[in-house]
Amino acid sequence: MKKYLVDVYLPTIGKHYCAYFPAGKKVGEATLLFIQIVESLTHGAYKGTDNSLLFNADDGEPIARNLTVYDAGIRNASMLILI
For residue 10, what are the β-bridge partners? Predict the structure, then answer.
């Protein structure tokens, strides 16, 4: 499966993380997996929710959770914000 290396900024903790997002996975599913990883890496300092949203850092637009990563236009080096 094709994956894209993206940069995700978490403003609540002021940190950036790089992660691979699978092209065929729904954005909502990829977001939840990413949240689990970050919660583990931060030893609970970051707490995500099921309602957390990804935004395109270039234009500030939210990314639809029901689209696949590919259909949402996420590619290598995409800059995202997780709120």
Answer: 15
